[in-house]
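Recall the central idea of this unit: under ordinary conditions, the amino acid sequence of a chain determines the structure it adopts. In this exercise we apply that idea directly, starting from the sequence alone.
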Amino acid sequence: MISVKILLRKAKTKNDTYPIIMRVIKNRKTKTINLGLYSALDEWDEIKSSYNKKHHNYRNKNRILRYNLDKAEKIIDQFAIDGIDFSLKQFEQAFKGVQMNNKTVSEFWKTKIENLLKVDRIGRAKTYKSTYKSFFQFIQNDNLLFKEITPSLLDDYEIFLLENNNTEGGVAVKMKDIRALYNEAIRRKVVDEKQYPFRIYQISKLKGNNVKLALSREAIKKMENLDVRKYPHLVDSKNYLMFSYYSRGMNFHDMVTLTWDNIQENRIFYRRSKTKGLFNVEITKPLKEILDYYRNYGTSTKYIFPILLKENLTPLQIDYRKTKCLKRFNKQLKEIARLVGIQEKVTSYTIRHSFATNLKQAGTSTDIISEALGHSDIQVTQAYLKSFEDEVIDSAVRKLLEEPLARYAS
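Accordingly, the structure predicted from this sequence is:
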């Protein structure tokens, strides 16, 4: 229920006049808007909510009042046409003519990247930069406005990405970047929320084929048992692999910046770079052996692993070094897999999924795995967990059939 009324506010000014206001009521909430008009008490008709004939210019003033009422009704009608359940704040902005600025998508996007770099969120900035390059390669229009990003345009961009050998998972990542950017543009009043294209274009449809790869416990053991004395160039990569696995799937970036100060007694304390969550990991035997190795053969820096070879590096220098070493690490993981007879694709990302999946197959509840991974939402954890193989399910069914029939007799 919405009502709009013109009223004389009983708050006398220095000139012995009273302000005229518009009162809007919606769902029992009230918004008062000052119309910038004033009247003396004896010049105001309370019943008709208008100036009376005692005011020397009552006809013109009443035309202004009718204009404001018509304007309010048109705004309410437009919200209804657009299907927007508007707030009183939105009504006030529309009534006062608060205009959206015409900052282009390109300008807004570049500013976002610059701001991320200022706060040393290098990885996030690189992701936005990559999506920016891809999107404007597709759109070929640096003057594009946010209101021009329509569901149809997003459909076309999706096709463009798939035709250029992007996976559905990769398309989803880029679409999430655009969605996050659009949401921020709405918050900053660059575009009206009624233009929001992601009510129609659904990113969730892209998740179906985004299969998470994971290695079995047996495969992990094969790599753990590789005799690196025969392959000394693989020592560090094997250590990084096993350290990540046994430290609850620690990602490579956090391993890069891990210092000896993070080691306290029999535990590793660190803050994850991506989520900023605090982790407290027990140093089990495999982890202790790796740490002891680098105490004896590591570098003279504060870092545990010989990846950052200097201290006081800038965030950009750290990111450059991390990227270079991660590339070499993933290349050597493939070599390790080949040497021990593993056919599956192995990357640093695979290890984190393997840790989670192997815990699940060992009977650990998803809640505990979620806690171990540091996820705030259990649905994120479920996305990490590889489905049990058909043969595992078949084996479970066979065990049921092998139970003595007497146990089922009445």
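The first strand starts at residue 2 and ends at 8.
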